[in-house]
């Protein structure tokens, strides 16, 4: 029997609130990371559901969740159905880890970075203080930080790029097989972004790590990721390999996103997609593309959501199935 995929997400739906205030952040989202070493990009505009997807996979959710359905299988185990005690003990940070958009969210500002990293190791079973210290030094060296001096610093004493590297070190502390990176470079300037991408590439090659790389920057994602999910209004617009989605984009929204990528040629104007993303309180059971003519699907009907159709092997596109 073949091994199950590293991560298999099926029909994942997530809503907050109820009644007229119900907001559907994810609507039947499905994708697969087949094996170690794969990197999946999740791209889309702000409000498309990217960060909600990260929270749903980690099962770190607010109290006002009104619907959470579908499955999230890690090596065949549905972690969505696991109790909180099991998730905390054996899944989060040990098998699936997370680097949030703001690295400062990882650290307590009143404690030294090294102390926090060592305490994380201690909570998860590394009892010997010398072993904890040695591991903290190793992790900082791994991500390109000065192990001795930087471990002694407080979060506010590190630059933005250094804090991001420290957050990656924290995410790797318990040797997970999958790391979710939520806009890890959005707060950094272009020169620092390249360094973080190079670091992530090196770590993947060295440890066979898999990534879910959440970003609005398509160009940056192509440097790291070999497959793409394009999200819009909580739904998948397009999904497949990097070559399929980027080189043979089929959905109007994907093509519109790619057209907005700057080429930095003299005199080029910055392009944007006309219209606004949909109100997530109004998309359940409807087509999220319909209100925005520039990306409206062929055969689009306002009150009928599209379905994912496999247009070539492994390449899925949201389409409306027209009845005869």
In brief:
The protein has 324 residues and is an alpha/beta fold. It is built from ten helices and twelve strands. 31% of the residues lie in helices and 24% in strands.
Tell me what the structure shows:
It comes from candidate division WWE3 bacterium RIFCSPHIGHO2_01_FULL_48_15. The protein has 2 domains: 7-95 and 177-319, Rossmann fold, CATH 3.40.50; 105-175, no CATH class. It has 10 helices and 12 strands. Helix 4 crosses helix 6. By secondary structure, it is of the alpha/beta class. Strands 6-7-8-3-9-10-12-11 form an 8-stranded mixed beta sheet, sandwiched between helices. Helix content is 31%, strand content 24%.
Mean pLDDT reading: 91
Order of helices and strands: EEEHEEHEHHHHEHEHEEHHEE
CATH topology of the largest domain: Rossmann fold
Portion of residues within helices: 25-40%
The radius of gyration over CA amounts to 21 Å
GO biological process, one term: peptide transport
Subcellular location: Cell membrane
GO molecular function: ATP binding; ATP hydrolysis activity
Membrane topology: Peripheral membrane protein
